[in-house]
Amino acid sequence: MNQSSILGNLPLIFRYEDAKELGSHIVNRRSIVLIGIKRVGIGSFLSFFINRKDVIKAYIQDPDDYLFIPVDMHDLIELEVAPFWSLTLKRIVDAVDSSRAREETKKEIRELFLESIQLQNLFFTIDSVRRSIKKIIDEGLMPTLFFIRFDRLKNSLTPEFFANLEGLRDSTHQQLTYVFTSYLPFRRTFPNILTQATLSVLNKNVYLKPAKKEDRDLIFRSYKKRYEIKLSNELEKYFLNLVDGHFQYLHLGLISLHNPHREIITEEDLKKYLLNDEGIKLQSEELWECLNQDEQKALIKIVSEKNIAREEKFKTIYLWNVGFVKSEGKKLKIFSPLFSYYVKERILDKSKDSGAEFSKKELIFFEYLKKNLNEICERERIIENVWSESSELGISDWAIDKLAARVRTKLKMQNNQYELQTVKTRGFKLTEV
């Protein structure tokens, strides 16, 4: 059973309030930025929402009048403007082909895409997107473009790019709607390239917090059988408390517990086992490094049970908006005990490994590179060979780059004969010095 089939079995009440709000924005043709903690499960939520006809029908009036066009930035090999527009046009073709649009319209849009591939002209491709969207609207359909993990493009975009997005929406008289996903608000992701006009059009922020208890339990029950988890009822409850509502923590924990390398009897056994899991450690580090210094300091104060002043909360309101921090009465709490333990380790300065020996994951990565010495190892192939057990989760660029950085550092510490090179937009290559 794959992830899509599991999401397909979730009941309609899954993330009810989030689905209801998203449906409302789409019906009212409001463009939004859907923001959440990294790897919190935005992609899975959108997959549940977009690909289930019963879900669409539950939250949108006359769902047959809407055309959803998902464009996932993970499908981009090169994180540049031209490939972005080509991918967008291809996803429009894919969506229209399975829609109720007339065959004539489907053919015209396909021809626009093929011509854009032949010409390799950015202006023609953008105009083809515009013309395709107009043809969709002329068919009586209301298109919504879902730009998933849009923040991956943060180093490639310009004011002209956002002007083109605005122009597309204006040319459709606001009938085209955008749903962007990002782990940060656009004001932080693109601080120097957004005009005030662009922000007013594109920067309606909607926050997707970690799943509530009932939604988390639905996901767990859906995956439990697949991974053959054999924990007592008490340990299951403790496990769910540890991962909280963070999708990646939950999934990584289930993968780790599928074939545990040692017996787990007590809550302390389970906690130590998960905290020592390399995937979970890396996930915690990724969450930490996506925060700015003020936010990191605020989390350190919270785990140290120190007060957060009003001005500090104002400066770090992102932590509350996305659910890193939640209130229990008058007490502040970090969303997941796993991440809270990681923050405590930061205080004790135990989170950094100063040794030169490879960890299990680093060794797998190094051996794969060595097997393909002097050859470029593409990112997708790295994921398949290093993260085979969890590749369907969508391993982040950060995780790959961080693993490579650690291997590079340790090779130097070992005075190794090999050198790890980065091949921009593609992957890595191991060479002999």
Question: How would you sum up this structure, described in words?
Answer:
This protein has 433 residues and is of the alpha/beta class. It has 3 domains: 3-207, P-loop containing nucleotide triphosphate hydrolases (Rossmann fold, 3-Layer(aba) Sandwich); 213-268; 360-432, Arc Repressor Mutant, subunit A (Orthogonal Bundle). It contains 22 helices and 10 strands. The protein has helices spanning 3-8, 16-27, 42-51, 53-59, 81-97, 103-119, 122-138, 159-171, 186-189, 196-202, 213-227, 233-243, 247-258, 267-275, 278-289, 293-303, 310-315, 317-322, 337-348, 360-371, 379-386, 397-413, and strands spanning 32-35, 66-72, 142-148, 177-182, 205-207, 325-328, 331-334, 377-378, 418-423, 427-432. The protein has a 5-stranded parallel sheet with strand order 2-3-4-1-5, sandwiched between helices. The radius of gyration is 23 Å and the shape is globular. The model has no long low-confidence stretch (mean pLDDT 90).
In short:
The chain is α/β, with parallel strands linked by helices.
Key traits:
433 residues, alpha/beta, Rossmann fold, Arc Repressor Mutant, subunit A, 3 domains, 5-stranded parallel beta sheet, 3-stranded antiparallel beta sheet, 56% helix
Fraction in beta strands: 5-15%
Find the count of extended strands (DSSP E, 2+ residues): 10
In CATH, the architecture of the largest domain is 3-Layer(aba) Sandwich
**Poorly predicted runs of 5 or more residues:** none
Shape: globular
CATH topology of the largest domain: Rossmann fold
The domain count comes to: 3
Radius of gyration: 23 Å
CATH superfamily of the largest domain: P-loop containing nucleotide triphosphate hydrolases
Main sheet: strand order: 2-3-4-1-5
Average residue-wise pLDDT = 90
DSSP helix count?
A: 22
- The computed structural class is alpha/beta
Major sheet, described briefly? 5 strands, parallel
Proportion of residues in helical segments: 55-70%
**What is the CATH C level class of the largest domain, in words?**
Alpha Beta
End-to-end gap? 45 Å
